[in-house]
Amino acid sequence: MDTTATLRGFNRTYTQRIGALEESFLGTGRPLGASRLLFEIGPDGAGVRELRDRLGLDSGYLTRLLRRLDGDGLVRVDADPADRRRRVATLTTAGLRAWQELDDRSEELAQRLVAPLTERQRVRLAEALATADLLVRAATIQLREVAPDDPAAADAAGRYFAELARRFPGGFDPGDPDHAGTFLLATSAGRPVAYGGVRELDGDLRGVGEIKRMWVDEAWRGAGLGARMLRELEALARRLGHDRVVLDTNGTLTEAIAMYERAGYRAIPRYNDNPYAEAWFEKDLSPGPRPA
Amino acid sequence: MDTTATLRGFNRTYTQRIGALEESFLGTGRPLGASRLLFEIGPDGAGVRELRDRLGLDSGYLTRLLRRLDGDGLVRVDADPADRRRRVATLTTAGLRAWQELDDRSEELAQRLVAPLTERQRVRLAEALATADLLVRAATIQLREVAPDDPAAADAAGRYFAELARRFPGGFDPGDPDHAGTFLLATSAGRPVAYGGVRELDGDLRGVGEIKRMWVDEAWRGAGLGARMLRELEALARRLGHDRVVLDTNGTLTEAIAMYERAGYRAIPRYNDNPYAEAWFEKDLSPGPRPA
DNA sequence: CCCACTCTCTGACTAAAGTCAGAGAATGGA
DNA sequence: TCCATTCTCTGACTTTAGTCAGAGAGTGGG
Fold this sequence. Notes:
Two copies of one chain form a homodimer. The first copy, chain A, contains nine helices and ten strands.
């Protein structure tokens, strides 16, 4: 099956059959941009900065859209107490009602779309869309380098440690984690979904890179995000001047071990005194092709 | 799995990750509407009327868009020799080049999107999208009543007869087909994809409806379009005052027979002298719930 | 050869969407 | 306490998209 041809064919179908419908459905009474904004603010409110990023709007334009919703009594915009340069938009009671109406309409549209299908076909459609959703999200998410003290990185590290504590039979105590190294992070809707880092070892292994804290959110597994993270960490290690990387892991993390093996890692003897480590791997980077 | 929630979740992902990207990709140099139009005209050209339907544009607006493309030397608009009220847009050499560039860009976008995925994941994505594409198209296609002498209906009947001729061991000769009855037709991009009709029987079976020429294009099978056609034909038969429908079929058409049985049809003895018929079915419509 | 109808085009608009430069308040480190 | 930086807002625009009411050419059936 030709992937790009299928994708392009689907794009066509989607634009014509769903996209157009959605616009006509949601843009009633209010311009579409204003509806989208209202929907995006949502019952929990949202920062102006965040809205700008999520919707890709010019700051002046967003200000005006917000003022308009404010004028209609749907939204209030206040300074963020934590940082008074930032502003936060929240829905008023009327705004909440309008939001609910949009949500209902969106649900109705979805209902109407699947109405001609039988139950079995709906299940098939839902499965196909869930798969496509996961893969598209995993393919389009950006891995970015973060400072060790970035709050999102700390959040990700916390989630990583929590998972180890859950999965290791004897629990897991990170002690006083040192944050040495360079870390990559992928976030979605402000929450970390994948995380990992490289640091340089010292002593006998001086010059060798160690891959640390590889973690992918459970909801995002099965779409190759772990493998992608590993590839990008290897590329990062190369940029940092390492031509060999090592890592340690625990026997409970079977999927991770399988992934390392698929990625060309070979088991080696213990190289550190990590009490939780039960398996050690290495990979020679020097002859590898440069990644795209 | 909750179908509408999955669908809505996918919509979100799609709009953010693909839709936005596509707009920024295709709308370079030219407004997006003009690009879309140029792309839609395509190397083979297209009638203005057809473009209006496909893109959902106001006729005045389309005229102006075309004039603009004409002014840029990309498109020529001439009267259709067959009906000089109609006009036909064709690409000039420069227009063809611009079209090719759009096509390349669209392909590049698709490539880029799937680039982070492994081959296995690409196959999974392509399969999921192909399934979703078929189901969405089948769910959103409109079945419309057509006059028996509608050229699209004649086209569909021709395709139906051709398939019978291919599948029946001894071939099939429609003889001089009578066009009595009311027919439903679904078309996509101007070509018939599903077809079928109801006519009233006479003689002993006066008052009974007969379902005729049920046909679904091969590329559209497996998405319940046949079952939907059958349901709508039954609804049509009810509206025409029949509380019982019958139909005949050939033993070679095993999928059709399975579908009739799933839809509640029961085998009955031969009720007509159709030489190609090998099985006869009936369904009582009176107590059935009205379809949506 | 009428006449109702189809199809496209023109003129005259309006609304929505987006852009850009720069002002002003607030913040966080040096 | 500076000062560079971040964030939002304002003013002054342009472009894109879309709407609506007719005019005028062409068509097909009676």
